[in-house]
Design goal:
Distance between the termini: 47 Å
Shape: globular
Strand content: 5-15%
Number of helices: 13
Helix content: 40-55%
Number of strands: 7
Number of domains: 3
Oligomer: single chain
Length: 361
Amino acid sequence: MSFEPTTVGLDVHARSTTACAICGPTGEISTIRLSSDHTQILGWLTGLATPVRVVYEAGPTGFALARTLTGAGLDCVVAAPSKLQRPSGDRIKTDARDALHLARLLRLGEVTPVRVPTPAQEAARDLSRAREDARADLMRARHRLSKLLLRQGLLWEGKNTWSWAHHDWIARQSFTDPALQAAFEAAHEQVLMVRDRRDRLDEAITQQAADPGWAPVVERLRCLRAISTVTAFGLATEIGDWHRFTGSSIGAYVGLVPSEHSSGSRRVLGPITKTGNTHVRRLLVEAAWHHRRPYRQPTREMRARWERAPAAARSRGHAGNHRLHRRWARFDERGKKPSVAVVAIARELAGWCWALAVVQE
């Protein structure tokens, strides 16, 4: 048995997989085209010189292949596509070359792995993202309906849009033109259907968040203002293992740190990187806006949340709420643009969420 591993790169697609192996003892390269069947891929890998290390890029095919190979005792790494080094002069791209490139990077130790969630964790994350999709669909449906009414000179003059009063006002509208009436009814029906879908997903998230696997983290995150059950569950499912990060590194993971282009004695900071998890970044920025309002005493709802959390989490959450509002106040005093200030608040909010997630009971 050789102590130099055989590294295998897999270029995985929905219907086919191209595999390239670099033999550990000899350095011989072999390439084969396989189907997407995991049994066939595993059978070919087990025929290689051991030990075998496998890598493929994270993508739409998910993590089922990684779980299959890991369950069979193989060392399988799922690579972060954005972290893969590619030669700037390489202008030829094929499945075989991509697989060989992955095998070489793995052999050199230049692959940045992503976390492979368990099936239960991935299912919970899919639930959270389904709710995110419903939120976006509802926003688009409302926009289409409101603009249809606006083109007819109908504008809601009430205080709160999309309240029950607003919905009653929309339901009372009617048009004499049959084509316009049909378009209005279709747009209104779409808003109601998507809203009901979002509400059903909210109920499912509330039930899932009470599961012992998620409840401790969710309850601790809810000690912060603007972190509801839906937001806390979304953060918990997307981050997964909070102990991978520190209070300062988690901001970089979600792309909330400034980009930098420095050379010599010249240091230039640009806009935020916007790398990493976009879902977490949106949740944090949305929650950061709420900390602009003054925070003096915890509300009745906040006290109810605190009763379900450990004492250490309550104390840390209370301190975080005060700190984040003071930061907002200082930004406003300095005349900082709100769209810029909210990103800084979101970056610090990420640190407070990390502190609550890893706090000891």
